[in-house]
Amino acid sequence: MDRRMLGIVLTLILPVMASAEAEDYRFPREPGTTKDGYPLPLTGIPITKTPVITRTPGAAVKKYPEHYVPGKESLADDEMRITACGSWGPAPMRIGQGASCLLVQLGNGNSFIFDIGGGTVGNLFALGVHPAELDKVFITHFHLDHVGGIFALFDAMGWARNTPLHVWGSSGYTPELGVTAFTENIRGAAEWHIQNKQSILPRGGMTIVPHEVDYSAFSLERPRQLAYDEDGVKIYAFPVIHALAGSMGYRLEWNGLSFVYTADSQPSTFEAEQGKGADVFIHEIFPSAEEFALYNHMPIQAAEGVMEEHTTPAELGRVYTIAKPRLGVGMHFTLDDNLIDPLFQRWSTTYDDPVLLMQDLTTINVTSDYIVVRQTRADLLAWPAPPPKPPEGLDMSTGEPSKAQRPAWLTATRLSKEP
Ligand SMILES: [Zn+2]
Ligand SMILES: [Zn+2]
Question: Which band of pLDDT confidence, cut at 50, 70 and 90, is reported for residue 46?
């Protein structure tokens, strides 16, 4: 083949190869549906029959690309984007589902993380936000499936977050069960890492600042507290019925849009009232105790005990019937092809407005006129996003070298450096 012919053939083949590789790489399963017509997980299609919801029937909707590709799509000034960096709950971990974590991005440039479960930080960093902006975490409760990724996020200090990590959470029933003790313990457990890095990297990012919500101050008369109030963004905390005292949900309000996240919670009229009229309401949802026992090889009594703390699809439908969100979302669900139809069948016994079952990297774009749900096509080998502007006024000083230096006799055996 002469060079000209080779050039023509390569021009034809290379784009096909590149796109085929991209598809296989990010969405590992072929598109397909359940018997009842719901998209299967991990196929690049969100698990919903209403991916587009308009405020008024037939209203115009911006034409979005089929998938959300971080870095390739800007957010309008008045738009909110919610992405699940992890969609699952109970341990053990799964490759295809990280534990609970949501990233909420607003058109004013603000980003907020809600829960930081294990196996989620890779997804989070792949969403095209500079690590320095991933510095605000709102924790619903301290079950490890909601906080297990905090070390990996804290480690972003090595990735150009030169300012503290801020963590909101409840004050706890007693101080050792609250967010201040939690952050001090995380910081303490990272002491070896920090003593090493503080003489190599800027120190500004090596602290965690707790922000306590006074759990003892909640009552029926004071159902919510303002936890965050900046740049026109208000985030309220409210208590939910889950495990120990201290579990909370959050309601974010900005620019006439609202997002509510309860994470783990038993169904209640109280939480339904806190979520009333939300644009997007994200709540846990569970399979039956029998299904949970079967798939987790667990005695039925243990599965029934787990279910005591959680919410069935029919119960969630009752919560959403009171709250009336524009989009009702179920999260923290063990995805499996065989569990999807039974889940939606049970959900539909009490609720027939738009619903979504969350999987990792499901992205929800929200405006006052419409809501659009897609899957994210994130680069598995994404580098951190570039900083939006050059860092300024940061603590670039480095600390004293640690006294815990390696023994000289060991270091002396190092191979000489290449010239
Ligand atoms: Zn959980
Ligand atoms: Zn929990």
Answer: very high
CB 348 within 8 A of CB 42: no
Ligand 2 centre distance from Cα of residue 205 (Å): 29
The mean per-residue pLDDT over the stretch 161-173 comes to: 93
For the CA of 89, the nearest ligand = 1
**Strand pairing class (327-331; 280-284):** parallel
C-alpha R_g of the chain: 23
Q: How far does the centroid of ligand 1 lie from the alpha carbon of residue 309, in Å?
A: 10
Distance 100 CA to ligand 1 centre (A): 7
Whether a cis peptide bond, with omega within 30° of 0, leads into 386 is no
Q: How far apart are CA 80 and CA 254, in angstroms?
A: 9
Of 22-31, 125-134, 190-199, 207-216, the range with the lowest mean pLDDT is: 22-31
Task: Tell me how far the alpha carbon of residue 143 lies from the centroid of ligand 2, in angstroms.
Answer: 5
Tokens of 274: 């806190």
CA–centroid distance, 419 to ligand 1, in Å, is: 53
Q: Please identify which residue in the block is written with the tokens 């909101």.
A: 168
From the CA of 264, how far away is ligand 1's center (Å)?
5
**Which residues surround the ion ligand 2 when the cut-off is CB under 5 Å?**
143, 264
Whole-number percent of the chain with pLDDT over 70: 91
Task: Give the Å distance between the CA of 84 and the centre of ligand 2.
Answer: 17
- 350 CA → ligand 1 middle, Å: 24
Q: How far is the CA of 223 from the centre of ligand 1 (A)?
A: 22
Q: In the block, which residue shows the tokens 């587009």?
A: 52
Specify the pTM: 0.92
CA of 72 to the centre of ligand 1 (A): 32
pLDDT (average), residues 100-126: 96
- Strand 111-116 relative to strand 101-106: parallel, antiparallel, unpaired? antiparallel
What residues pair up with 136 in beta bridges, in sequence order?
Answer: 166
Query: CA nearest 240: which of 212, 210, 273, 287?
Result: 273
In contact, 169 and 212? CB cutoff 8 Å = yes
The DSSP code sequence of 150-167 is HHHHHGGGGGT--S-EEE
pLDDT, tens digit (0-9, with 9 covering 90-100), for 182-223: 999 999 999 999 998 888 777 778 889 999 999 999 999 999
Distance CA 336, CA 38 (A): 12
Cα gap 228→11, rounded to integer Å: 53
